[in-house]
Amino acid sequence: MAVGIGRRQFISALGGAAAAWPLAIQAQQPTMPVIGFLSSGSQRTFVDQVAAFRQSLGEAGYVEGQNVAIEYRWADGQYDRLSTMADELVRRPVAVLVASGGTVAARAAKAATASIPIVFVTADDPVAAGLVISLNRPGGNLTGISFISGVLSAKNIELLREMVPAAKLIAVLVNPNSPGTEIQLKDTQDAANTIGVKILVLKASTEHDIDLAFTTLQQEHADALVVVADPLFTCNLVVPIAARHTAVPTVYFFRECVKAGGLMSYGTSLIDAYLQLGAYVGRILKGEKPADLPVVQPTKFELVLNLKTAKALGLTVPLKLQVAADEVIE
């Protein structure tokens, strides 16, 4: 009888061990890392940027849904939501926090954590914005990509004057809620004063505001328009609105806007920035530290012209601009 009881106990114990095997195997499997994607913009207008980010992340060996998960938080232009969203992602917790859509998102991410790596994209000077201590050696837990677009304001005013020599009033579309707006406006005003043109400031902090801004532009009879670099003013949002509202010559900061039908741009590539964003996140997931990754800056700025749009606007593009252009879209 004792032998029978021992046998039953042995079988029971063996069964229990077998049932525990899947749990033990599962415990040994590495946990899929989670990337927090915090954006001040909207999912609808950031489709191309997210696609570029995923592409580069995949090239680094991380494919969403296979060996990495991505948690998205979209503020839809409501910047007061960013702090709460950043806190949510930190509590998740995430392995890396992406701050997409300017300094305002990066600051919210920085305030939420001093330990989780953060990679940002901004058009502002990240040192002046207090995100990093230097561009080459960021220090802390942040690094990223910066366009430092303020230095391009003067060039964009000059380009518009060359395109429209008779221009006397140039409108500037800005987002008053963005941290770098005052600096961008000062640089633009200084450039306008140098060449003797007046500036009309158009403020927009929502998509609806953009429509209203273009109505004001028409009412004030502005001769040309500068659209500053801002996460709200995505190419697939602003370019169609501009085409619908007005035939005013417009210069943008990103080449993608010209490919979308804008007249011209002087600056860099927004898609390249998000490709670099994915590359940096991949490197951090593999063990590198943000403090050791320099903030990426554009190595060159390019002039891109759209001759088809110029023709539709009734403009003759000066030969000087066509020769100087890095790319001309026929």
What is the name of the CATH superfamily of the largest domain? Response regulator
Q: What CATH architecture label of the largest domain applies?
A: 3-Layer(aba) Sandwich
Arithmetic mean pLDDT: 88
First-residue to last-residue Cα separation: 95 Å
Structurally, the number of domains stands at: 2
The number of distinct β-strands equals: 12
Biggest sheet strand line-up: 7-6-8-9-10-11-12
Helix content: 40-55%
Which runs of at least 5 residues are low in confidence (pLDDT < 50)?
A: 1-5, 17-29
CATH class (first level) name of the largest domain: Alpha Beta
User: What is the alpha-carbon Rg in Å?
Assistant: 25 Å
The biggest sheet, with number of strands, parallel, antiparallel or mixed sense and barrel status, is: 7 strands, mixed
Discrete helix count: 12
By CATH, the topology of the largest domain is: Rossmann fold
Can you tell me the overall shape? elongated
- Which percent band covers the strand fraction? 15-25%
Structural class: alpha/beta
Tell me the series of helices and strands, N- to C-terminal: HEHEHEHEEHEHEHEHEHEHEHHE
